[in-house]
Amino acid sequence: MPRIEEVTQQLSNKFKDGITGIDQPGATQFFADIKKEKVKDICNEIIKMGGRYLVSIGYDNIARDQTLGMIHTFAFDRDNIFCGIRTSVPEQNPVMDSITPDIPNAGWSEREYIDHLGMKFSGHPKPKRLILSDDWPEGLYPLRKSVPWNIQPPSAEGVAYQLDECPEGCTVVPVGPYHPTLHEPAHFALYVDGETIKGCDYRGFMVHRGIEKLCQTQLTYNEIPFVAERICGICGSVHATSYAQSVETAGNIKISRRAEYIRTIMLEIERVHSHLLWLGVAGHLIGFNTVFMHSWRVREPVMWLGERMTGNRKTYGMIVVGGVRRDITPEIKQDILNVMKKIEEELIVIKNAIVGDTSIHKRTKNVGRITKEDAIKWSLVGPVARARGVDIDVRRDHPYAAYDDMQFSVPVVDTCDVWGTVLVRVLETFESIHIIRQALDKMPDDGPILTELAEPIAPFKHAIAGVEAPRGEVVHYIITGEENRPERWRVRAPTYPNLQGVPLMLLNNELADAPIIIGSIDPCFSCTERVQVVDIRSGGVKVLSKAELEAFAKKK
Amino acid sequence: MWLSSKIKQVLMALKPGVVTLKYPYEPHPVPPDFRGQPYWDHHKCVGCGGCAAHCPARTIMVRDLCQEVRVMLYDGSRCTYCGRCSDVCPEDAITMTDKFELATGDKRDVTQSMELFMATCKRCGRCYEHETVNAIDRMSLKGFRYDNLEMRAVIPVSTEHLDTALLEKTEKYKRPEKLGE
Description:
The complex is a heterodimer.
Chain A: H1 3-14, E1 19-23, E2 29-34, H2 39-48, E3 52-61, H3 62-65, E4 67-76, E5 81-90, E6 95-97, H4 106-117, E7 120-122, E8 171-175, E9 187-193, E10 196-203, H5 211-217, H6 224-229, H7 236-251, H8 257-285, H9 289-310, E11 319-320, E12 323-324, H10 330-355, H11 358-364, H12 372-377, H13 382-386, H14 394-397, H15 418-442, E13 462-469, E14 472-479, E15 488-492, H16 495-506, H17 514-520, H18 525-529, H19 546-555
Parallel strand pairs in A: 2-5, 6-7
Antiparallel strand pairs in A: 1-2, 3-4, 4-5, 8-9, 9-10, 11-12, 13-14, 14-15
Helix pairs in contact in A: 7-8, 8-9, 8-15, 8-17, 9-10, 10-15
Chain B: H1 2-14, E1 38-40, H2 50-54, E2 60-64, E3 69-75, H3 84-88, E4 94-96, E5 111-117, H4 135-138, E6 144-145, E7 158-159, H5 164-171
Antiparallel strand pairs in B: 1-4, 2-3, 3-5, 6-7
């Protein structure tokens, strides 16, 4: 019997009266409808069976049955299964048990729906405001369908987020929202005793702009990939691919093999430049700007390659529902191989230059140390988890695009500190180059790159799609809707779980190490908060008058 | 160990030499398929509005003043240069040019507006009913669109017949106000 049936059988045997129905649309995912009283028991059982918590999805179902829906999703990594545990609470009394005491990573997801849908979770350890701004009026829940997408509540004075209680004998050191080591706004309040960090509170989501609501109410299926791509300035294709895959799974659309190969190549090119970017930023954070300058110098040809392949150095705009937009011609293929050869040579030089450098070791070894057990408990993902010995990778565990044809190894180290994340990322870059070469070699020569949608996508189908982004695992959950747009689209970026583990990593470290620890998860606050970030081209140096500048810009 | 790493780092830094480009003092050419500022060829445009229906940023707006005159406005100030308009254009009227230095103090520099004279079918009063597969049907766009070009706002409403009440409503359209004001 396939493992997925074993899992569903085991669950329905154990919770005969708790599970009202099981929906299994494909060989790799199932959705169980359960009674809300049993949500805690069933989620704990799934964790015991080897499941890994992904994200929770709340949605407004008031128009149909006067309820607010809640879906907890899990992954069984060894068996290639995604599962969703669906439940609902009545609109009048939206209270359900919190799963956060046992699964700490669900904390943010649940707080998100306290803010967005007005749900209540009994037993939540920290039911504070997470996403909405402090002056957002009480009782106005933006994700409910009755609230228009463009509502603008009045601003208020004299409201502020109440930080957690400072432990006795500690001083609060605020880091952010504008701080040299954070590239985007986020506020960390570090509680320090002397130089040692004893605790941390986080207030972020300062740039939350409600992309999900916008896409659920205004845009159509094939416009969303372009908005999804702009969720993150660095891993854009990842979000577009994940969104497209979720729609394709829900709508049963089969795309051509060549398109899957092109997607694989785009994702790996993105990983190469993202890891080089991170290596530079990490060097910068520990005050080692040689690494910063040179890994960014090596990265630049990848950006130009992207420009030649897709027409833009970032936000490639390649991926749409049904395939990709541009083909890889033989000339481009040769171009990719040449660039990759050069990157590989240069990266070996950088690796040899930094791998034995004692000043880097001193700044990163034994810094941000957490155990493998904690990493699993907090459901950390990506290089952050792999540096703690947790062997997970969506590309291998839940193969998508053309990864089932690729042969690659997943680097896992067990140093459990920031140095481990450096190692994992450098090794992964070599693996990515290896995958790109394989994909170019094995790619089928013909076939359409874009599959036309034969019929409209059926409404109210659920689907989960995971994609391994450079920072970890991206999860998109979709409920298809009428009117050619999703009913609910939920994005979970890798920083979302990883940032929740940061307080644990900071604990008992030196204050001066805080930037590199926060940096080690490669934080992307805009992904987490689902807004746009902009890639900036460098500007001029001399001060020109406005007219001069304009004349200059128009000359060309 | 420390010293050998430092020597390797010096060699790493010396080998490439100066890599900084002289831009903007020297022009920076872009590759042939670059997605720069889109350009509308009014000779080719049939006014189907497919680009407006597919623009993720809602940059392209259509307004029908009457059966014969259709105004199309491209507001480049919020364009994301995804090139979707040029993909879906059935007449290849839209090309992505190589212009990318578009910073300007005047919004009109990045705006294009076209007034298209639409033909009316002499037999039925509407142009597109005869064919079963044509561009208009594929775009699933109804006869008249009511975007507010002055406010640069998209009002996602279109009807089959010119609706004077709706036209008036869009003319009086105001952006959503803040609650409580």
